[in-house]
Write a structure and sequence with these properties.
- By secondary structure, the protein is mainly alpha-helical.
- It folds into two domains: 1-62; 63-192, no CATH class.
- It has eight helices and no strands.
- The two termini are 28 Å apart.
Length: 192
Amino acid sequence: MMYLISGLVLFLGVHSVRIVAEDWRNHQRLQWGANVWRAAYSLLSLAGLALIIWGFGQARQQPVLLWMPPIGLRHLAILLTLPAFVLLAAAHVPGNRISARVHHPLTLSVKFWALAHLMANGMLSHVLLFGSFLLWAVLAYASARRRDAASPPVPASIRKGATGVTVAIGVALWMTFTLWLHGLLMGVRPFG
């Protein structure tokens, strides 16, 4: 469990610098240069992610049950991951209305993903992993919206068809992941 916790602290800590120390982050980026900052950020993030993956795999070997989720929550979790994938696509398809409307769709995607998995799993390792990501996403989204209020972003230009493409990509990713990749990578098939 220590690898999982260490990975979460490292990965989410790196991703929380802007939430808790925006001025320090900006000063370090100026002092180090943007490329050095990105390289350090990326290396620390990858190390944290590797620890999370390793630690989660180890923790799943010795499960500690905290609660048994009702079967209905598992079905709801499958549905909640659909908007998570659409929001994930919205973060990467330029000119779509979803991103222009909600702002920060990637962070919202993490919220939906983490909440869905938190509802459907009652093991300690799952609660640590998904609960940590949910808490981070709530704080990161609130911080981003405060920055937006202080310095409003330039309105994004909407491209014809981009929203439809976004939804189509999100649904295709969701179907691919829930029907095939989740079982292959995680050993759990959401649809049984």
